[in-house]
Design brief:
about 475 residues, alpha/beta, FAD/NAD(P)-binding domain, seven-stranded antiparallel beta sheet, 13 helices, about 30% helix, binds NADPH dihydro-nicotinamide-adenine-dinucleotide phosphate
Length: about 475
């Protein structure tokens, strides 16, 4: 049987582009289709523009702190349109690099929507033509949950639009308290917007270590970000003076310029033609894959956010690399999802690797918890309030560090490096014998000699 392509990839985001580029680089005939812009969520409407906006929003703090260091800063002003335009220039540059990388490797790019028509068949919408491929990779990613059950949801924005608002709002409510809500709350606050987070649960950032969650909550409130917990919207409607009138579940009403829904992401499987090939979904609607990212159909693989595994760019790229090694290099590799370092670019930032205290206490019977909270040196002269947190969780029986949680400036950068040590199986003794780098915040990680408390059989024991 001969096919038009050795590999056809649907979706030009992090996972899809990596798979297409690597396989084309091996001399195989590869096609890739993207209906929006190459680079996908991360480059176009996610990680990259988000980080640029985080940098932009830090300046208000830098200007405030300058006086403590002897600087006089003149009158400052912020122009949202300039930021949006500069961001656009940068993501266009990156998009160009993605395209160039694919072309350079010899892949054929299609700027069109593509859908499955069978186990080896892909329909290209712009050309209304079906192409065939020996292997097909689905890497179409996800999209913000539009929360269609909410009356008036169409008045709200989601993260895709937040980057390109025509004007910066004066007052915004962000619903949800996960990565996106918390990061955008910091961004908008730093740019001078009045921000409220509305969360259905008890504490922001479920799934993160409780100390980190509480400390970030406290610091957000100290900065002036309002956090309303145990509540959701009951409906949204057009307001009179302000754009939107938001009704909360306890009967309160808030008039704001923007409502931002950051309530998780859903896979982009609608109309993808999965039924033509018989590709199965899991109960949550994500494409079901085995440990090698293969679907139930032998010729079709799925990578990245559409599979519902950790929704992170490096994870999608890693899954793509494993797919290439397994299918084209005769070197079967399963993606390794253990000990993924992650950061939340809140302000202050969170960096984390491994288990939370809660999860570690369920897994290990004998834990040591090391904690240091202190004011970062950088805050002292400007008299900025706010504490930094360093926390290590150690399985006392093996002495292995099983969780590291940091809140404070550059926490993400630190988590990346601790991730290496933890992946190598570092023990607490390894941390202790590592020389401190002074003066730094990170040195606290290697100078916490005595446990702050122990957890034995799930119960905290304070000495
Ligand atoms: P998250 O899953 O992180 O957070 C979703 C939030 O919405 C949670 O607070 C959740 O509450 C709440 N929620 C979900 N459904 C409802 C509902 N029906 N009503 C009310 N509240 C609801 O999703 P995000 O959208 O913030 O981000 C999506 C993913 O993108 C992340 O999980 C992450 O993998 C990735 N991402 C990573 C970033 C990074 O690496 N820095 C940055 C941004 C995104 P509850 O907790 O109670 O379920």
């Amino acid at each position: 049987m001969s096919y038009d392509y050795d590999l056809f990839v649907i979706g030009g985001g992090s996972g899809g582009v990596r798979a297409a580029r690597r396989v084309a680089g091996l001399g195989k005939k590869v096609g890739i289709a993207e209906e929006s812009r190459y680079g996908g969520t991360c480059v176009i409407r996610g990680c990259v523009p988000k980080k640029l906006y985080v940098y932009a929003s830090h300046f208000s703090e830098h200007f405030e702190d300058a006086a403590g260091y002897g600087w006089t800063v003149g009158e400052t002003s912020f122009d949202w349109k300039t930021l949006v335009a500069n961001k656009e220039r940068e993501i266009t540059r990156l998009e160009g690099l993605y395209r160039k990388g694919l072309e350079g490797a010899g892949a054929e790019l299609f700027d069109t929507r593509a859908e499955l028509r069978g186990p080896h068949e892909v329909w290209l919408k712009n050309e209304d033509r079906i192409v065939t491929a020996e292997r097909i990779v689905i890497a179409v990613g996800g999209t913000p949950n539009p929360h269609k059950d909410l009356e008036g949801h169409e008045l709200a924005i989601v993260s895709d639009q937040a980057f390109d608002l025509t004007e910066l709002p004066e007052k915004i409510i962000i619903a949800g308290a996960g990565y996106i809500a918390v990061e955008f709350a910091g961004i908008f606050h730093g740019l001078g917007v009045d921000v409220t987070i509305l969360y259905r649960g008890m504490e922001i950032l479920s799934g993160f270590d409780d100390d980190v969650r509480e400390m970030l909550h406290e610091q957000y409130e100290e900065h002036g970000i309002k956090i309303i917990t145990h509540q959701v919207f009951s409906k949204l409607e057009k307001g009179s003076d302000r754009a939107i009138r938001a009704h909360l579940s306890d009967g309160d009403v808030m008039d704001v310029d923007q409502v931002f829904l950051a309530l998780g992401r859903v896979p982009m499987t609608d109309g993808l033609g999965l039924e033509h090939a018989g590709v199965e979904l899991d109960q949550r609607g994500f494409i079901k894959v085995n440990e090698y990212s293969r679907t139930n159909v032998g010729s079709i693989w799925a990578l990245g956010d559409v599979t519902g595994r950790e929704q992170l760019t490096p994870v999608a790229i890693h899954q793509a690399m494993c797919f290439v090694a397994t299918e084209y290099l005769d070197r079967p590799e399963r993606p390794d999802h253990e000990l993924i370092p992650t950061a939340v670019f809140s302000q202050p930032e969170i960096g984390t690797v491994g288990l939370t205290e809660h999860d570690a206490a369920e897994k290990f019977r004998n834990l040591e918890v090391y904690k240091a909270t202190f004011r970062p040196m950088k805050y002292v002269l400007p008299n900025r309030q706010g504490k930094m947190l360093m926390k290590l969780i150690v399985d006392a029986d093996s002495n292995r560090v099983v969780g590291a949680h940091i809140l404070g400036p550059d926490a993400g950068e630190m988590a990346q490096l601790i991730g290496i040590a933890m992946k190598m199986g570092a023990s607490k003794a390894d941390f202790d014998r590592t020389m401190a780098l002074h003066p730094s915040a990170a040195e606290e990680l290697v100078t916490m000699y005595e446990p702050t408390y122990r957890i034995i059989d799930g119960k905290r024991q304070d000495d």
